[in-house]
Design goal:
By secondary structure, this protein is an all-alpha fold. It is built from six helices and no strands.
């Protein structure tokens, strides 16, 4: 009588295919819906009744005054910290007020900027 025949099969795990990268549009709409972005930008650049200027323009003017009175680092801090906080709020919640705050802060950063700042940062030469 013949002996037992033992057969061993070894299976190697099949590597899973990586998920495809989402498109830029899908990545952007994960945080902000298009209607919220349009509404927030419209509210940020629309003139406030009684003031005559937009919320973004008022914030940019405030930051530019800080640049003139207190110096460049203070102006960048005054513009950058709220911008980072608003960006964090958009990533966490994505509500219309958070997107509005991000739009206003992004417009306000222009008050801290000057055309010579990148040249000064790269070369150290002051105008």
């Amino acid at each position: 009588m013949p002996g037992l025949i033992e057969v061993r099969i070894t299976l190697a795990p099949v590597p899973a295919e990586p998920e495809p990268r989402p498109s830029r549009w899908a990545w952007l709409t994960r945080y902000v819906r298009p209607w919220k972005a349009i509404a927030a930008l419209t509210l940020a650049v629309a003139p406030v009744p009684g003031v005559g200027h937009s919320a973004g323009a008022v914030w940019a003017y405030t930051v530019s005054l800080a640049r003139d009175e207190y110096g460049i680092p203070h102006a960048y801090a005054l513009a950058g910290i709220p911008l980072l906080l608003a960006g964090t709020a958009v990533v966490r919640r994505g509500t219309l007020p958070a997107v509005f705050a991000l739009a206003v802060c992004a417009i306000g950063v222009t008050g801290a900027m000057n055309w010579y700042d990148p040249i000064t940062a790269l070369t150290g030469v002051r105008p």
